[in-house]
Design a protein that fits this description.
This protein is an alpha+beta fold. Helices cover about 60% and strands about 10% of the residues. The strands form two sheets. A four-stranded antiparallel β-sheet has the order 4-5-3-6. Strands 1-2 form a two-stranded antiparallel sheet. This is Putative hydrophobic protein (TIGR00271 family).
């Protein structure tokens, strides 16, 4: 009965919004995507984030009062004694992206992440004047706001080393080997996009900047082991191709106007690797994953492994050395650029945090 009532209420709200929008509406499949040309301003993608908290009952008043009093927080909802594991009250709110780190740090200081739980969810769109007002109350730009807890959590996820990581990396290297043999730039780009190595490189950069030694070791070991596994399998693949007569030393030494750059690194290889590493880190910290595609097809890590594998199979020492240098230059360039970019962002973020601490209620711990 309760679910039916909620459903009817949602439909009534939906119908009311459609009536208000009139002829100037565009409905994109759900209530959260109703746009009115003449309506109130709304927050665009990722301007606000949703925070879901399970709070011990004895601290619920303190938490909800503080969230409610913060102008950067809106849509505060509380349900008493509904959480079962962990037990406590359920609190939900929408927060301007610039204020998320402040709130998370305050919750951590009060032990909510240990005694309860904290979840952070991206909000695709929030067509509400309340969300717009919360965003306006937060100084700075949403794209420049870095949620370091989310960045660190993503880094740990990327450094796990699942079976799919090894599979994608190996398949990408094998595609790159075929691209070298056929001198196909399309296959080279395809291999670059399939390769998952940048996520691990970014995880290593995060570990270095945030001082997480265990994460740094884990990501470095995963990157080494992943490339080693991919290299062994791709070399075996190339040896099979040679045994059946599909490749020969001429496959590498012959004219390759479209893929010859793979084994001939130069100063531009380092420049591109540095720029790609910086762009990749910026795309992850700003939450714009679409820019990662450009990073994938800019660097020559996967094609270098494909060329190296073929060079071993047909024994072409010149190509072997060149592709190894190409791989090393790209890995080093992306790593250095990632660390430097993150360190600069961390410096700016800390400065902004100090400024916000002087003007927000989170500067001081709550009263008992």
């Amino acid at each position: 009965m309760l679910l039916g009532l909620v459903g009817e209420t949602a439909m009534d709200i939906h119908a009311t919004l459609l009536e208000l929008c009139g002829a100037d509406r565009r409905v994109a499949g759900s209530l959260s995507r109703v746009y009115c040309r003449h309506g109130a301003p709304r927050c665009k993608d990722q301007d606000v984030m949703q925070l879901q908290i399970v709070v011990p009952t004895d601290r619920s008043d303190t938490i909800t009062d503080r969230l409610r009093d913060d102008p950067r927080v809106t849509n505060v909802v509380r349900f008493d004694r509904v959480a079962l594991r962990p037990e406590g009250d359920f609190v939900q709110c929408d927060i301007a992206r610039e204020a998320v780190s402040d709130v998370l740090d305050w919750l951590h200081t009060n032990g909510i992440d240990e005694d309860g739980s904290v979840s952070l969810i991206e909000v695709d769109s929030s067509p509400s004047p309340n969300a717009w007002a919360a965003e306006k109350a937060a100084p700075g730009a949403p794209d420049d706001a870095i949620v370091w807890d989310a960045v660190l959590d993503t880094a740990w996820t990327q450094a796990k080393g699942s079976w799919s990581f090894y599979a994608f990396l190996t398949v990408a290297c094998m595609i790159a080997a075929v691209a070298v043999v056929t001198d196909s730039p399309i296959l080279v780009v395809g291999a670059m996009v399939v390769g998952p190595e940048f996520g691990v490189i970014a995880a290593f950069a995060v570990a270095v900047v945030l001082g997480k030694r265990r994460l740094a070791w884990r990501s470095a070991y995963l990157l080494f082991r992943g490339f080693l596994v991919a290299l062994i399998i791709t070399i075996s693949f190339a040896l099979i191709l040679r045994s059946i007569g599909w490749i020969s030393p001429a496959s590498l030494s012959g004219p390759r106007p479209l893929t010859g750059f793979i084994w001939q690194p130069n100063h531009w290889s380092l420049v591109v690797a540095l720029l790609a590493g910086a762009a990749g880190v910026l795309s992850q910290t700003a939450g714009h994953s679409n820019a990662l595609v450009g990073v994938f097809i800019s660097v020559t890590t996967i094609p270098a492994v494909g060329e190296f594998s073929l060079s071993v199979a047909v024994w072409a020492p010149k190509h072997l050395s060149g592709s190894a240098q190409q791989l090393g230059i790209n890995l080093l360039g992306m790593t250095v650029a990632g660390v430097v970019t993150l360190a600069f962002q961390r410096l700016i973020s800390r400065r902004n945090e100090r400024r916000r601490a002087a003007t927000t209620s989170y500067a001081e711990p709550p009263a008992d």
